[in-house]
Amino acid sequence: MIKGTTKLLGVIGHPIEHSLSPVMHNAALSHLGLDIVYLAFPVKPEDLNVAISGFAAVGLLGFSITIPHKQGILPLLSEVSPVAIAVGAVNTVYRTANGWGGTNTDVRGFLAPLRSLSLKTGTKQDWSQKVAVILGSGGAARAVVAGCAELGCAEIHVVGRSEQKLTEFQQNWVNSPLAVNLLTHTWEELPMLISKADLLVNATPIGMYPRGDESPVALSAIERLPEGAIAYDLIYTPNPTLFLKQAQERGAIAIDGLEMLVQQGAAALEIWLQQPIPVDVMRQSLRHHLGL
User: Fold this and answer.
1) Burial (0-12, 13-18, 19+ Cβ within 10 Å), 74
2) H or E stretch covering 182
3) What one-character-per-residue DSSP string does 186-212 give?
4) How far is CA 22 from each of CA 37, 89, 105, 154, 261, rounded to the nearest angstrom?
5) CA nearest 72: which of 50, 41, 46?
6) Which residues are designated catalytic?
7) In the β-sheet with 155-160, what is the strand arrangement from edge to edge?
8) At 246, which helix (H) or strand (E)?
9) Which pTM value belongs to this model?
10) Which of 39, 35, 46 shows the shortest CA–CA distance to 12?
11) Which residues share a beta bridge with 266?
12) How many angstroms separate the CA atoms of 17 and 19, rounded?
């Protein structure tokens, strides 16, 4: 029951209507018996500054950030965590004595299903021999690069459409200890890269609502994916995406964005609430919502 005492958490993005974050966060908040509700707020890039000023005015406890604000939020924060500085993107904002502070829980979320995959198969992955190919060069891709570097991947390749953005992307990692062996490529090089990928990650919004009938990779290129490679789509709706369907048909191991969503969300709730979070409740609420 929403009352006059009810506190607010939320997520901002554009578009945001597809977000399942309210489903899992409100399930956790209800399970914990807290007088807090989590809402989705559509915020255009040009409205970001005034939006977070408004959030401070109405007393939001904190908020999540998704496309396209993960980098745009940085200059508006009074405090940024070391991991967010290293990644160059923020996905979780919390209150501080001096204003809003930001951190990044996407790295933890991205790594969780890859590490649990080793437990499920009983085979420890030797990532030092693996090649990672990442589609996209935005805030989500930055978290993936950090995760792949933490795993110790032998090669990390980032593929994008804008040479200028790719150049800036690579330069941003020059002084970072996280991203070793990082190379950037234009989309024309993708078919060649896919043929040697052990891990192929879609960090673009292509294939996400309302573009659910699209894939970031042409079928002729996905057919080059080695059998047994891991295809990982950060998108969680639709489930599965066309990208993952086509990769599975090639014999790839498919990972969707659902577990990453759960784990990064749980990490954010820990920051906001300062107490243990019912991760299983969050996961089951999403699976029930999606009919999985």
Assistant:
1) middle
2) strand 182-186
3) EGGGHHHHHTT-SEEEE-SSTTSTT-T
4) 8, 22, 17, 37, 11
5) 46
6) 70
7) 182-186, 155-160, 131-135, 199-202, 230-233, 253-255
8) helix 242-249
9) 0.87
10) 39
11) none
12) 6
Angle at 35 between CA 283 and CA 264, to 5 degrees: 30
**Average confidence (pLDDT) per 10 residues, the chain, 292 residues:** 95 94 98 98 97 96 94 95 89 96 96 84 80 93 92 94 91 73 93 97 91 92 96 92 96 94 96 97 96 88
The rounded Cα 210 to chain-centroid distance in angstroms is 18
**What are the φ/ψ torsions at residue 265 (nearest 5 degrees)?**
-70, -40
Query: Distance (Å, rounded) from C-alpha 132 to C-alpha 110?
Result: 13
Which two three-digit tokens encode residue 208? Answer: 């996400």
Dig out the tokens for 268 from the structure. 């954010």
Place of tokens 């609430």: 273
**Residue 40: DSSP 8-state:** E
Q: In angstroms, what CA-CA distances link 21 with 9, 31, 63, 111, 224?
A: 11, 15, 11, 19, 34
Distances (CA, A) of 256 to 137, 172, 223, 231, 244: 19, 28, 19, 8, 8
Tokens of 292: 């999985």
Mapping DSSP to helix (H, G, I), strand (E, B) and coil, where does residue 114 land? helix
What's the rounded Cα separation, in Å, for the pair 27 and 281? 7
Amino acid occupying residue 48: L
Length of the chain equals 292
Tokens of 37: 């509700």
